[in-house]
Amino acid sequence: MATSTPRRPLSELRSQRWLAPDDMRSFAHRQRLQQMGLRREEFMGRPVIAIINTWSDLSPCHAHLRERADAVRRGILLAGGFPVELPAMSLGEVMVKPTTMIYRNFLAMEVEELLRSLPIDGAVLLGGCDKTTPGMLMGAISMDIPVIFCPAGPMLNDRHRGHSVGAGTHTRMFWDDYVAGAIDQPEWIRLEAKMTRSPGTCNTMGTASTMTAIAEAMGMTLPGASSIPAMDSNHPRMAAQCGARAVDMVWEDLKPSRILTRAAIDNGVVAYMALGGSTNAAIHLVAIAGRAGINLTLDQMARTATTVPVLANLFPSGDKLMEDFYYAGGLPALLAEVAPQLALDCLTVTGRTLGENIASASSTDAQVIRSLAEPVSALGALAVLRGNLCPDGAVIKPSAANPKFFRHRGRALVFDSNADMLARINQSDLDVDEDTVLILRNGGPIGAPGMPEWGNLPIPKKLLQAGVRDMLRVSDARMSGTHYGTCVLHVTPEAAVGGPLALVATGDIIELDLDAGSLNMMVSDDELARRRAAWQAPVHPYRRGYTRLYIEHVTQADKGCDLDFLLGNEPTPEPPIF
Ligand code: FES
Ligand code: MG
């Protein structure tokens, strides 16, 4: 803790506006707290710290957060704060349909408005499953009161037939083996029971660990917090420390706007690349930066990917799991390896700089956390493509793709929707071979809606049975960070708004050139103009409710898929209290 930081006077705390005045309204606020059995001295003159909890019975990754909130509460009380637990929307990645991505912005709004509408001085954000981290951070950044992020932590490792098994990554691998007949049904059912061994987020370098680690690199968590397994005793200890630290952060007025500078965001990008992080981060980071008033572009991130190789040997780029990463020193050790590329003077939630936080960190297992001299992959975690198929950009994760496709020409096989793809992909007469480029459209932010993780199109059954395990795939959808394969994602503008992806036809020749950063369809401009004239925008069935609001306001993938009216860092007025 930064002991030299002067303490703000009590009268400056937000909660004092609710609790301190000697008037009828404040009398009612105090009365209602006493109604819950609280004594005056438990809440008077203390920072009110919200524990924003994304626990739910349908969020396996957050199953332990209800009891973890108790640890946070302990820390808050010991440090002299008044803890209040506030539930927020729980985005359990696998259960929420059509996709949690629709609700990331909903959660961001909920966090922001919870913090604004209630007498809250600071907050501990409890979450970790994919969209939860960006959603909570985006809301907290927009509210801009002191907050600390407490990552849910990864689940325990599993092993199968002597090999590490990773959540997500091996689900698809085993499915492909099952479809191909290499796994029988009893084994398939055994795997169902053992692959996700404990509460906690995916143990691969999927979107969850990518985003919690980025949050840490940007200075929003305690040092090392994002790597602690959910079921390790260090986890509740870390949670308690988050509670204590949140109280001090209120006294120090250590707000996100003081932490999330341009340089801090860039540190997040460096971590993203060194981790071999999920392509989803390319959307979330743009959105997080946007809330802080910082313009982050795909090209800036892709440039960093060319100078920061993948050092974390984790699925899907490598072959280890988060527990191994933790034993090897966790994120601080990884950051120490790329320290020359980081802005070490960035302030963090500890009140100290990033450089101070990682000063004594080093990798204790060079197999898991590699050095710059011996990276897991020099191919990079992100590349941006442009061309007549994706004028505003598309992304690919070279480190999780097959280099044989990095220069590729193939015939397009186009699916108009995910339902169309599912209906046809396994037909025995499907006109497809391993050089075919599988294309899925109408999977974007508006088209799907919500840009689901459909971009890792399955390999057609007949090719799986022939031993094919990867193909070039192109879509305006996203892909799970736990997945691998040569998938061009986030094609922008998306088909549903008339992007050129809407115009490609089965049989067109598609050309990818990763070195040149290009993705094109070999179709003449005249022919494209003719197809455009005949194109009709799809009519979406969402005429009411949140999904309608989302569709009407969501930005494209290269802009972060935030809602346009939530962008920017213009202050919103505090609520009047009377
Ligand atoms: Fe929650 Fe992977 S499903 S982190
Ligand atoms: Mg995921």
Automatic annotation (TrEMBL):
Keywords: Iron, Iron-sulfur, Lyase, Metal-binding. Gene3D superfamilies: IlvD/EDD C-terminal domain-like. Residues 367-561 form the Dihydroxy-acid/6-phosphogluconate dehydratase C-terminal domain. PROSITE patterns: ILVD_EDD_1 (PS00886). SUPFAM superfamilies: IlvD/EDD N-terminal domain-like, LeuD/IlvD-like. InterPro entries: Dihydro-acid_dehy_C (IPR042096), DiOHA_6PGluconate_deHydtase_CS (IPR020558), ILV_EDD_C (IPR056740), ILV_EDD_N (IPR000581), IlvD/EDD_N (IPR037237), Sugar_Degrad_Dehydratases (IPR052352). Residues 46-357 form the Dihydroxy-acid/6-phosphogluconate dehydratase N-terminal domain. GO terms for molecular function: hydro-lyase activity; iron-sulfur cluster binding; metal ion binding. Belongs to the IlvD/Edd family. This is Dihydroxy-acid dehydratase.
